[in-house]
Amino acid sequence: MNFWLHPSLLLILGGLLLPLVPARLKKGWLLLIPLSVFARTLTLTHGTFGEVHVLNWVLVFGRVDRLSLVFGYIMSLMCILGTLYGMHVKDDKQHIAAWFYVAGSIGAIYAGDFITLFLFWELMAFSSVFLVWFRGRRESLPAGLRYLLVHVAGGLALLGGMVWYCKTQGSWAFDDVFRNLAVNHATPATWMILIGFMLNAAVPPLHAWLPDAYGEATFNGSVFMCAFTTKTAVYALCRGFAGTQLLVVLGVIMALYGVVYAVLENDCRRLLAYHIISQVGYMVAAVGLGTDMAINGACAHAFAHILYKGLLFMGCGAVLHMTGESKFTELGGLWKKMPWTFVFTLIGGLSISAFPLFSGFVSKSMIVQAGFEQGKLWVGYLLLLASAGTFLHTGLKVPYFIWFGKNRPKPEVWNRAAEPPVNMNVAMAITSVLCIFIGCYTPYLYRMLPFPEEAMKYQPYTAYHIFETLQILLFTGLGFFLLLKKLVPEAKISLDLDWPYRMGGRVFLWLARKPVQALDTFVGELYRYAGLIPLMITARLSALFDNEVVDGAVDGLAESVRGVGRRLRLAQRGQMQENLTFAFAVAAVLIVAFIIYSNR
Amino acid sequence: MNLVKLIEFLRSRLKTVVRVCFVVLALLILLDALFVSKAHAHTGPEHWPGFWSLFGFVGCVLIVILSKWYGHAGIMTREDYYESTDEDETEHTDV
Prior knowledge:
The complex is a heterodimer of chains A (600) and B (95).
Chain A: H1 7-17, H2 26-43, E1 47-54, E2 57-64, H3 66-85, H4 92-110, H5 114-133, H6 140-169, H7 177-184, H8 188-200, H9 209-214, H10 221-241, H11 245-264, H12 268-289, H13 292-323, H14 339-352, H15 359-373, H16 377-403, H17 411-416, H18 422-440, H19 442-446, H20 452-457, H21 463-482, H22 484-487, E3 493-494, H23 499-513, H24 515-571, H25 576-599
Antiparallel strand pairs in A: 1-2
Chain B: H1 2-12, H2 14-34, H3 51-75, E1 76-77, H4 81-94
């Protein structure tokens, strides 16, 4: 077997070595590793590499084709920008967690079989949760636990589905599940895989983890999180489920759902998180449409989205980092203090809204066009409606209520506000330039897409398309300023579908406290009357025997029980996070052992 | 800083800026109606002059009004909705 240098390996080793790097070389190291990952991505050639034979499986770590390359390219590019943005953070743990997370995402993209995919898929969940925990607020721990809980559930659905599916297929290769499904009919196994993918893509009703976690992560952690989890899932859906009609409907629902919640949202990073759901909705719908044009659109939009959404999270992250606030009701009028952050965020906003000359314009339109071309007019119109909503919030509401507006922050917040450190500004500037470059020079992106001939034929800059977009967006702008009074953010939160599991825990606790405790008391009483009193009589009778013979034996027994108890207590003293990780690891090992055993 | 000065300049002439914006909107419809070829249109209504302007404006108003209605129908709630009861729980479990 020839050694194939996996880009993720560079990140994992680089992360592990980071604490050993001397302080003065640290910034260089933080740039060197992502840059070398990007360089490695550029040198990849098509083919299947890194095959490892374990037991009777073949693990494929490097399936390199057009689809995986375009995702691998943008992920490694975003890793450079995200690391640069947080470079001044003097906490190795945060960088290591971020890099492991990216390694998981890139590993999942190049994985050629389900087992490798699953391993990296879980690496993503288990490293990204630290980006939430490292925020260190009181809310961070439960938010991270909820994130982990949801992703472990999704991971188990995926694991169960893939074991079942691969058993019936007789192969572990991760290929076009949908094509096999069309031949062999949908089985519960394919549904479980689809649910696992959809959960990571935040498809309703499996979406509530996203705003919950992304609004709570560290200022630079969110920049990473907004790029990798959902887009890796989009990749997996492109690979496995292109053409699944259900995804068209779900994608359009997603696109509008995110818009509705963004109207209500008061926290700028949660608003952006809802717009991730909305934008990923375009990609999911495109996967469902499944034509060459649509798949190109899904990949192009994922590419553009990673950059402009990263830029938006960088802008709002900079506000949070400098002022400590992310709520519209606590911010306002910051244009005097953070003008450049405003410009960069605005560029992100114009890109996501698909203004001509910005990146969203050349990617989003492919998906809308694919919808119209398939004769699905409702898809085209509803996605255009969602893009009006996108401009309304990300292009107008976010910049207006943070940098302008009537509201003014508290004096201490106002005094803290200033332009962020140089590295953050540089990261935002580079990302802005990329957003505009992609919008202006289409061949750069179009040549990278899975079906380049189809993409190069597509022409986004027709007079009709430019006027259509400008009319929709500018008249949305008119609507925004006319309805400004209605849009003033309210200091409230919106209930979403995380309610069942956030409140469900409470039902469980109540059950544990009330009925179970009552039962416990009842059994205790029963024991006292039915057990204890007769026992006392017997005890008196046997006292003599007891004193003479049993004492010695019991003393010994009690001593050993105490010893075991002490050990157990030590073993489970750990944090809940550790316990969860441990429990999950045990479950995974058991399942793997079961597969090996049943294969014999 | 130049950027701040530019924003100050625009803010001090807000009335002019707004007027320019209205002119741009009017021009947009006018140019669309007179010069833009509708060969790329997908459906009939798109041939109406200013169809997409109407679409954008009505869409925006609908999104705002329907979302706010949905939010005020009980979806929006106080910020400590989850927290306060959480504290309750910890008190209980501590006992």
